[in-house]
Every structure is written in C-alpha cells, then in structure tokens.
Design goal:
The protein has about 300 residues and is of the alpha+beta class. It has three domains: about 10-80, no CATH class; about 85-225, no CATH class; about 235-295. Helix content is about 65%, strand content about 5%. The chain has a four-stranded antiparallel sheet with strand order 1-2-3-4. The longest helix is centred in the C-terminal third of the chain and has 32 residues, at about 195-225. The radius of gyration is 27 Å and the shape is flat. It binds zinc ion. Zinc ion (ZN) binds near residues 231, 234, 258 and 260.
Length: about 300
C-alpha cells in the first residue's frame, strides 16, 4: 500500500475504537482510547509503507476485533452486579428483555396488532366494542397519570442525558404496562369459562388493577429519577437522615451520595419543604473546608 503518510486510518477502524471505548469503565476510558488511537495510527503508517505482515485489510480487521475483545475484558474485570443494578443500563436492559419476552410469548403482540388494524379501518360494532374496552382504559390511565405527575417533575436545569433517560424510561414503562394489560388480559379472559366471572374478574377488576399499575409505574419512574445522580444517572446510595419531624427549623432531611463520588443530594422529607438540593463533590469539599475554617 502506498500513499500520504499523514493520511488518517480508515474511518471504520476509528469508529470501532470509539464504539469499543464505550464498553470501558468511565474512569479508564480516556487512557484506553488514547493508547488504542496511537496504536492505530502507528499501524496505519506501517500499512502505508507496506510493512504490515500479511494483507493490510486482514491485519487491521484482526486488530479491531482484538480492540473490541480487550474493551469487553476491561468491562468484565471491573464488573460488579450490585453497581450494575444501580446503573441506568440495568433498567433499560430489563425493559428491553421484558419487551422481547412478551413479543415471543404473544406471537409478536398479535392482539395489539389486531386492535391497531381495526383502528385504521371501518370496524364492525363488535370490533368497535373491543377497541373501546381495550383503549379507553389506556387513555384514562394516561390522563390520570399526567394529572398525578404534574408538580412532581422538574427536569429543568438538568443535562440532556438526564432528561433523555427520564423520557426513555417513562416511555418504556407506559408501553410495557398497556401491552401487558392488552395481551395478558386477552389471554386471562380466554381462560375463564364462566361469562359472569369473565366480565367481573377479566373486565372490571383487571381495568382497576391496570389503571392503578399504570399510575404507579409513572410515579415510580419520577421517584426513581429523583434518587439518581444527575451526572452518571446511577441510583444514589447510603441515605443518612437528619433533623426531626417536630422541628420547623430543622425538618427531616435525607442525604444521599453518588458512589462514583460526583456529589450528594439533600431530600426534604416534609411536605411543602425545601426543594431537593444537589451539591457537586468539589462544591461540597469547599463547603466543608469553609466550615472547618469557621470553627
Ligand atoms: Zn454519579
């Protein structure tokens, strides 16, 4: 291979290194990527001089595969199940797994697809009844949840990553719960031979359970977000409660910290108390230093 020595390595290789680096833990990522980028540039110079062993394409493909494997090994070395459960990826992986399992066990959401199919065309009276019975509770649960969520959500002042995670998590939950209700409800009703029991248990009781679960899921999503680090989105740990319920000047407050050391969050447990207060590690250290100097 001949050409300009200053030219960049193939864009595919550079992107593979960039993608592989996402697997490397955050604290080691910059160093890992720096060394791999330098190695890739060195190899590319050798390729341009025609000094790589064997065919250039095969050698670079092997090198990229090795980089991916190395990034994966680095991730596994630092893997801790308890930390992963607190990471945002755990929730997203759990939701994705639930969707895949549901799709596999319901022939690709067959009941939901048939409902959407009826929605798009002039349906018979029986089909219209089925549509109303399935979709009206979903619309009702959505309205109830929006009313319940108003005032509890304050995404302003947070990063786009924090807001995107809240949006994605809530969207996944408000997709999974209605799918469970439509697909699971249809299977449940089919298994009840008695018509009266089917209408009461499979209809009325299930509607109430669905609406309550839907609202709980939305409120849980907001509560979960409130206890996440705004920097790394991990669940905060080690709650410490201070103050007393009877005191007006020192109300009960719980302080949480980020295990990655990004900062601490003060949550006032009293209704209509102070809003949550996030303090970054550098600011917290400065505050402690000032307090120590004042004493
Ligand atoms: Zn953090």
């Amino acid at each position: 291979m001949s050409g300009d020595y200053r030219s960049e390595p193939p864009v595919v290789c550079r992107w593979l290194v960039r993608l592989a680096s996402l697997m490397v833990p955050l604290e080691e990522r910059a160093a890992w990527r720096g060394s791999r980028d330098a190695s890739l540039h060195g190899l590319w110079v050798l390729a341009l001089r025609g000094e790589l062993p064997g065919r250039d394409f095969a050698f670079l493909a092997w090198w990229c595969g090795d980089a991916l494997a190395d990034a994966f090994r680095t991730q596994c070395r630092g893997f801790d199940v308890r930390r992963w459960v607190r990471a945002p990826s755990f929730l997203l992986a759990g939701a994705a797994t639930a969707l895949v399992l549901m799709a596999a066990s319901t022939h690709g959401f067959a009941v939901t697809r048939s409902l959407l199919h009826s929605l798009g065309r002039a349906a018979s009276i029986a089909e219209q009844d089925r549509l109303v019975a399935n979709l009206f509770p979903v619309a009702f649960a959505l309205v109830v949840s929006i009313i319940a969520a108003v005032g509890r959500v304050s995404p302003g002042g947070h990063s786009w990553r924090y807001r995107s995670f809240l949006l994605l998590k809530t969207l996944l939950l408000v997709t999974i719960v209605p799918l469970l209700w439509i697909e699971g409800g249809a299977a449940f009703r089919k298994s009840i031979p008695n018509e009266t029991v089917r209408i009461l248990a499979g209809g009325l009781v299930l509607v109430v359970v669905f609406i309550a679960t839907f609202e709980w899921a939305v409120l849980w999503s907001l509560a979960d977000q409130r206890h996440r680090c705004p920097v790394c989105l991990r669940r905060l740990v080690m709650p410490v409660r201070i103050g007393t319920w009877a005191s007006v000047f020192e109300p009960v407050t719980t302080e949480w910290i980020c295990e990655a050391g990004h900062g601490s969050l003060c949550v006032c447990e009293v209704e209509a108390g102070e809003p949550d207060h996030w303090m970054e590690l550098a600011a917290a250290a400065e505050y402690c230093h000032e307090q120590a100097e004042a004493e």
